Amino acid sequence: MDVIGRTVALFLCLAVAICSLPRGAETQPPTHVPRVGFLDPGQPEVGMAFRQGLEALGYVMGQDIVLEWRSWEGSPTRAPELIADLVQQQVDILVIPGSRLVRVAQQATSTIPTVIVAGGDPVGQGFVVSLARPGGNITGLTIQHPQLHGKALELLKDALPRLSRVAFLWEVTLDLSGRKALEDAARALGIQLQVLEVRSPEEFPHAFQTAINGRAEALYVAESAMLAVHLRTIAEFAITRQLPAVGQLRPSAEAGLLMSYGPDLADLFRRAATYVDKILQGAKPGDLPVEQPAKFEFVINLKTAHALGLTLPSSLLFQATEIIR
Fold first, then answer.
1. Percent of the chain having pLDDT more than 90?
2. What residue numbers bound the domain in which 86 lies?
3. What are the strands of the beta sheet with 35-40, ordered from one edge?
4. pLDDT digits (tens, 9 = 90+) for 30-41
5. In whole angstroms, what is the distance from residue 185 CA to residue 296 CA?
6. CATH no. for residue 185?
7. How many domains does the chain have?
8. Phi, psi of 260, deg, nearest 5
């Protein structure tokens, strides 16, 4: 083969090689891997549930999704700076636990899609226009349910048939919808509710003394980030004063309250993964309805019952989804 023939053959080989490359491979930029900012409330099981939810949808961590994890490590006061950091990092989606910090996220960004998990009343707090059509950049899952407080009080009354006065430990920064729902439930059951308003742990001693002075027979603890950090202190007081206490979520019973009744927190975080998936697929958060809890947990702490000298009826124990012995 002469020189011209060899040159033509080489040219043809190069042309075939170039044509066999994926279209645009020589100039195509790396595929964008979405980053999700996750604010961890310091409960390992919920973070694990969120990861499991994403993995069940086919996501591989670090490969086709990256979690920008931030934990406040028992100090909710650090949460605003963590949210600010995630916004500055320009994550694709924010996942925020509870309602208290949504206001911070709302002030930090009006464009990054934000998924609330275990929030309060997003409509009453002005985060969304309606549950069905949130509008804006916020959606998610609420822990509010019409029968929640009534059922919790009924279970407490099953444990204490003569119950007539209940003290309600309530953080004043919470939205009023939960407080009103509990007041309505107490009224329907003929229970006198004594509201103990607190702003910080320093106000606990006064609130507890007010409960004793008011001859409270039991204690209902509201769900809030601040109170959650001090559940063991609250449980110790309740046991010392022989006050059966109920909280809304599993950590309440695990910390030493007599019982907890409320949404399955892990289930809510698993379901939050579906919101992330839909948004990454192109859905607008304002078009995704805010959902109410679908699964509930009733946890009894038998160690606390023994410390209080209570013998719980078998019918009540039978209803429990979990018993701490």
1. 73
2. 35-144+265-295
3. 66-71, 35-40, 93-97, 114-119, 138-142
4. 688 999 999 988
5. 18
6. 3.40.50.2300
7. 2
8. -140, 145
The pLDDT value recorded for residue 1 is 52
Half-sphere exposure of 10 (CA within 13 A, CB side): 7
Whether the predicted pLDDT of 125 surpasses 90? no
Residue 298: strand pairing partners: 261
Residues 287 and 231 in one domain: no
Contact between 301 and 258 (Cβ < 8 Å): yes
At 257-311, the pLDDT tens digits run 999 999 999 999 999 999 999 999 999 999 999 999 999 999 999 999 999 999 9
Checking DSSP bridges between strand 259-263 and strand 296-301, what pairing results, if any?
A: antiparallel
Q: Are residues 78 and 160 in the same domain?
A: no
Helix, strand, coil in percent for the chain, rounding step 5? 45, 20, 35
DSSP 310: -
Q: Is residue 18 assigned to a domain? A: no
Supply the DSSP symbol for 113: -
Do 236 and 263 form a contact (C-beta atoms < 8 A)? no
Q: Please check whether residues 39 and 110 belong to one and the same domain.
A: yes
- Tokens 């645009």 appear where? 24
Instruction: Indicate the DSSP class of residue 291.
Output: B
Residues 236 and 158 in one domain: yes
Q: Are residues 185 and 302 in the same domain?
A: yes
Distance CA 133, CA 99 (A): 18
Q: Is 50 exceeded by the pLDDT of residue 3? A: no
Neighbour count for residue 103 (Cβ, 10 Å)? 15
Is residue 165 domain-shared with residue 92, that is, in the same domain?
no
Residue 237 has pLDDT above 80, yes or no: yes
